[in-house]
C-alpha cells in the first residue's frame, strides 16, 4: 500500500459508513464487493451507479472524522501515549460527545492502527445509538 492509500478509509469501514448515511463526494471509491481502492480526480459519492456497478465512496480519514463531528457531534483524537517510558511509542484514541468521554483505548503500535480502530469504534457507537 502506497502512502497516499493510507489516507483513505478501507473497504469494510467505507461500506459501514455508507450504511450509516455517509454520502459525501470523495476522490476515492470502491466498487461493491471489490476491495481495490480507485482514486480519481473526479469526486464520487455512494449514490453513483455506472453500468449496474454500485460505487462506495472511500473518504479520507479526515473526511470521516469530520462527518462524525458534524452529523453526530462526536469528537475523536489520536494521541501518543507518553505514560510508558523507555518503551516503544504507543498510541491511543479518545472519543467524546457533547455529554463527555465515551471511549478511550490504548496500546496501538502506530498512529494508523489507532486511527482505524477509532473509526471502527465510532461506527460501532453510532450503530448502537440508532
Features:
130 residues, alpha+beta, 2 domains, three-stranded antiparallel beta sheet, 32% helix
3D architecture notes:
With 130 residues, this protein is an alpha+beta fold. The chain is 32% helix and 35% strand. The strands form 2 sheets. It has a 4-stranded antiparallel sheet with strand order 2-1-4-3. It has a 3-stranded antiparallel sheet with strand order 5-6-7.
Total of helices: 3
Unreliable residue stretches: none
Shape: globular
Arithmetic mean of pLDDT: 85
Secondary-structure class:
alpha+beta
Q: From the alpha-carbon coordinates, what is the Rg to the nearest angstrom?
A: 16 Å
| Share of β-strand residues | 25-35%
Annotate the secondary structure layout.
Elements: H1 11-20, E1 26-31, E2 38-44, E3 49-50, E4 53-57, H2 61-72, E5 74-81, E6 90-97, E7 100-108, H3 111-129
Helix pairs in contact: 1-3, 2-3
Amino acid at each position: 500500500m502506497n502512502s497516499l492509500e493510507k489516507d483513505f478509509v478501507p473497504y469494510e469501514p467505507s461500506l459501514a459508513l455508507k450504511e450509516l448515511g455517509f454520502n459525501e463526494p470523495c476522490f476515492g471509491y470502491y466498487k461493491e464487493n471489490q476491495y481495490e481502492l480507485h482514486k480519481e480526480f473526479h469526486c464520487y459519492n455512494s449514490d453513483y451507479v455506472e453500468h449496474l456497478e454500485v460505487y462506495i465512496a472511500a473518504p479520507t480519514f479526515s473526511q470521516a472524522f469530520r462527518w462524525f463531528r458534524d452529523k453526530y457531534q462526536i469528537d475523536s483524537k489520536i494521541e501518543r501515549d507518553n505514560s510508558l517510558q523507555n518503551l516503544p511509542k504507543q498510541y491511543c484514541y479518545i472519543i467524546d460527545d457533547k455529554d463527555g468521554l465515551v471511549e478511550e483505548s490504548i496500546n496501538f503500535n502506530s498512529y494508523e492502527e489507532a486511527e482505524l480502530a477509532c473509526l471502527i469504534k465510532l461506527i460501532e457507537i453510532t450503530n448502537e445509538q440508532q
